[in-house]
Predict the structure.
Amino acid sequence: MSVPPESVEPSPSEPTPPPSDMPSPEERQWAMLAHLSALLGTLLTGHWFGIGCFVGPLIIWLVKRETMPFVDDQAKEALNFNITMAIIAVVLLLITVLTLGIGIILALPAGVVIGIAWLVLVIMATIKANEGERYRYPFCLRLIK
């Protein structure tokens, strides 16, 4: 009696092919750079309130969105998250200015906590992108679809 081909299991010595939805190493590298470029942009423009945090992800998204779907997704995610963080920073600044400085009692500790959370989340997203996983930032406004 013969066994149908569907029920034959591959032998352990045969390597299994990678899943087809796994991004290529080049895509993973570009996606990782999209997340890391936000960190670099913040460090380079820190004296201008870190406004460069979304310049790197924006450039990578504009250049690679047509050719690399994984990079398109992750660069948009990094861009949306950093725009969200910039909006939060502006709100905290407005709270401080509109209360004639009294609001800094709230804005400074909130800014420190948000800054630490931003750093941790960017590092986590970078690691996940390098592993080929699609990372979604929590509490992120999806402004760019």
